[in-house]
């Protein structure tokens, strides 16, 4: 198989399962990309809904492929997870994110996504500490986003790691809230700092009563538990207004900005135009 330079991969071998083959090629390319430092981190602002201030940026991985251009994470994170390459990749994102954030104003945090696979790595805590030390970023400016699936696997060990991370000041967010099977019980098992309301509930917030009711319940839950709530995927003024009205704490979405390269962060931090 060979990358043909037009954004697709062609396969010459016969008798091989095309999907398995595509995966092998992707795995090989991911290894090369790690060696060649082709991964970049983009940043999407997260705004406080009360004062409109940018309180954090979420770090989102991008693969700057030599032939195919910029590749979004959904196209490579799953294979990186299957092959274990998410461990070195996740470490690169973490290190770049901490280093970039160290250059931002002191009251702006950075949120980094952690894959369940990274929790199987016994060095996770050490590498988080190392990234903070190398960048001299204060630990309270680092947020780590995990999904419920992290708690699904080996939850005793995972909880111990989460407590250790939180013990030295890192904040832990529960990502994609509401999309799993037993979200509520996880809120009892660990003192999360933040709940991120999944985009699927925000998308039809203004048009479906059910989504509105769910967002209202989650923001209420956040308030009674003292947990920050962040709405993902805010695209319209109507969604923004409803979220603010419901007392959701923060929002993130294309309405404010898509994820942009590190060099654009300063531009994004300039005061927003009056809305
Ligand atoms: P996520 O953690 O839920 O990140 C939010 C995703 O929603 C991002 O997609 C972001 O670009 C997109 N998004 C933000 N606002 C809007 C909006 O208003 N409308 C719509 N339609 N989309 C919006 P992205 O960057 O493609 O990342 C996709 C997923 O890949 C992330 O979902 C996360 O699960 C994963 N991912 C990205 N970077 C990393 C990483 O460094 N490590 C790990 N483990 N996973 C990552
Ligand atoms: Ca996330
Ligand atoms: Ca999310
Ligand atoms: Ca999501």
Automatic annotation (TrEMBL):
Domain spans labelled EAL: 23-273
Domain of life: Bacteria
Protein name in UniProt: EAL domain-containing protein
Full-protein interval shown: 523 to 797 of 800
